[in-house]
Amino acid sequence: MNTYKLHRYLGYLLILPVTLWAFTGAFFLIKPGYKNAYEQLHITSYPRHATLPLLPEPEWQAIAINRSINLPRRDRRYRYQDKTHV
User: What is the rounded distance in angstroms from the CA atom of residue 50 to the CA atom of residue 67?
Assistant: First the structure.
C-alpha cells in the first residue's frame, strides 16, 4: 500500500468522529420529542391550616410542613413522605 492510499484511509478514519459529533450536535439542537420534558410541572399545594393526613412514626425526629410536601426527618435528613405510604 502506498503512502497516498494510507493517508486517504487515515483521513476517512479521522473525519468519522467529527462527522458523528456534528450529527449529534444537530440532533440535540433540534431535540425531537423533548417537548414533554420541558412542560411546566403541576405542584399540588395544601392549605397550612388543614389537618395533616399522616400519623408520626417513632423514627421521625421532626416534620417540616410546607405548602406542597410534608418532609419527616429521619437519620438527620428530611425525606419526602409519599402519600401512598401514609
Answer: 10
